[in-house]
Specification:
It contains 15 helices and 16 strands. By secondary structure, it is an alpha/beta fold. The strands form four sheets. Strands 4-14-13-12-11-10-6-5 form an eight-stranded parallel sheet. Helix 7 (154-178) packs parallel to helix 9 (210-223) and helix 11 runs parallel beside helix 15 (342-366).
């Protein structure tokens, strides 16, 4: 196995575990920052390492379009291409293709879509999505799925779920037939005794129907994967519904395998989901909010663009130990944002990522 998941202790539903990958150990529950284009916008990799980030998420759809899978493969895979020696997870591109809406056409074989960059036509199937992710070389890759829109009639949600299950079987078949030792394994990985193989996770769908989610979970587990994700969330449904679907689905997933909820949520939500037994989460919110001047603090959300901070000499969050709060005032951060300085994006993102990471550390410490 290319990953090893070991639960160390638990308290109720929440559990403290270690997920070992070819590129190092990950303490779970973990929040995974999103590096869509092999980059967490505005933050260099050495700073990400200093923040204690153990795993990043890359996006297959975006990397497929630019710079292209073959370019990344030729450069030695994502780890070498982006100079990141820690773990990487790539999603299959299913959610991004879903988001294209009018620019896509779904069939049994896969999805035909037009690039959001230049309108060129492309096709993703379970097989080609696996080929792309194998070429990118991430430690954990995801089965190709169809994300169900919200709201959706039960018949539509079932049809989408059935498609995802068939695509999961095709994803696994192609993966098992084509995955192999990645030829660019570094000497550091060799020293760890790593076989440098990848792991494929399955994805549970079923819309907002709890019974369909149960069926999807059980049948995905029957197909057999080393880890399971709950997908199709944060598509416009009420937040309480998100919570209910996660809670009801978790009970049908194996307790001895990592459980990953895709694309959620606020700091309070990820802490709650971790206490429910979720091991892995990702979300663009901390980085996207940072770019819009919305910062998360122990005293609540701060919209740093507001004029009331123009002469505020206090740190952004007096309880935060990040390099931003230790050095800069709210007034300066507000000035940078109002002046459209690139440094505003950098500092805001560093703080928000720290807040999310500290939230997960607090959950782990509480166990």
């Amino acid at each position: 196995m290319s990953i090893h998941f070991q639960i160390e202790t638990s308290a109720g539903a929440v559990r403290l575990a270690k997920l070992t990958t070819p590129h190092g150990e990950i303490e779970t529950p973990v929040f995974m920052p999103v590096g869509t284009l092999a980059s967490v916008k505005g933050v260099p990799q050495d700073v990400l390492e200093e923040l204690g980030i153990q795993i990043l998420l890359g996006n297959t759809y975006h990397l497929y379009l630019r710079p292209g899978v073959e370019t990344v493969r030729t450069m030695g895979g994502l780890h070498k291409f982006m100079s990141w020696d820690r773990a990487i997870l790539t999603d299959s591109g299913g959610f991004q293709v879903f988001s294209l809406n009018e620019l896509r056409k779904v069939s049994e074989e896969g999805v035909t879509f037009r690039s959001h960059l230049d309108g060129s036509s492309h096709f993703f199937s379970p097989e080609s999505a696996m080929a792309a992710q194998i070429g990118l070389g991430a430690d954990i890759i995801m089965a190709f799925d169809e994300c169900t829109e919200y709201p959706a009639e039960r018949e539509r949600a079932r049809a989408s779920m059935e498609m995802t299950l068939r695509w999961a079987e095709r994803s696994k078949k192609y993966f098992e037939e084509h995955t192999r030792e990645v030829p660019w394994a570094s000497s550091q990985l060799a020293a760890r005794g790593s076989q440098q193989t990848q792991s494929l996770f399955g994805i549970v769908q079923g819309g907002m129907d709890r019974e369909l989610r149960r069926e999807s979970a059980l049948r995905t587990v029957e197909i057999g994967f080393p880890g399971y994700a709950i997908g199709g969330l944060s598509v416009g449904e009420p937040r309480e519904m998100t919570r209910e679907i996660i809670e009801s689905t978790l009970e049908h997933l194996p307790a001895d395998k990592p459980r990953y909820v895709m694309g959620v949520g606020t700091p309070e939500e990820i802490a709650e989901y971790a206490r429910m037994g979720v091991d892995m989460m990702d979300c663009v919110l901390p980085t996207r909010a940072a770019r819009h001047g919305l910062l998360f603090t122990s005293e609540g959300k701060v919209s740093i663009k507001q004029a009331r901070y123009a002469q505020d000499a206090s740190p952004l969050d007096p309880k935060c130990g990040c390099r931003v709060c230790a050095r800069y005032s709210r007034a300066y951060l507000r000035h940078l944002y109002a002046s459209n300085e690139v440094l505003a994006q950098v500092l805001n993102t560093i703080h928000n990522l720290t807040y999310y990471l500290d939230t997960m550390r607090a959950v782990r410490h509480a166990i």
